[in-house]
Amino acid sequence: MTDADRSSDPSSVPASAGILVLSVAGRRAGLASRHSEGFLFHACDHLFNDIDGRLFASIGDMRIAARCLASLERLSPRALRPWPG
């Protein structure tokens, strides 16, 4: 099982794990806190504010949402500006 597979499997997260750090695309996206119904996301980077406070069924679902936001940032008009020179 790869690390990505383990992160999407809620049974692989130890019950004692209170808070997990979620990194995506080389950035610290946020923190995942265990909740009775899943995991609650707390953004650490403004790029991930759209999912701040959202409840996810699994760490894998949270990672997918964060990766989507990171990919949108790469496609933003700011990212498409010509290189100064």
- Helix run count: 2
Q: In angstroms, what is the radius of gyration? A: 15 Å
H/E element order: HEEEEH
Strand content: 25-35%
What's the story with the biggest beta sheet? 4 strands, antiparallel
Shape: globular
Class by helix and strand content?
alpha+beta
Low-pLDDT segments: 1-11
Strand order within the widest sheet? 1-2-3-4
Amino- and carboxy-terminal Cα gap: 46 Å
Share of helical residues: 25-40%
- Per DSSP E runs of 2 or more residues, the count of β-strands stands at 4
Global mean pLDDT: 78
Describe the structure.
By secondary structure, the protein is α+β, with helices and mostly antiparallel strands. The chain has helices at residues 3-8, 59-74, and strands spanning 19-24, 27-35, 38-43, 55-56. It is built from 2 helices and 4 strands, in the order H-E-E-E-E-H. The protein has a 4-stranded antiparallel sheet with strand order 1-2-3-4, covered by helices on one side. Strand 1 and strand 2 (27-35) form a beta hairpin. Residues 1-11 have low confidence and may be disordered.
In brief:
By secondary structure, this protein is α+β, with helices and mostly antiparallel strands. Helices cover 26% and strands 27% of the residues.
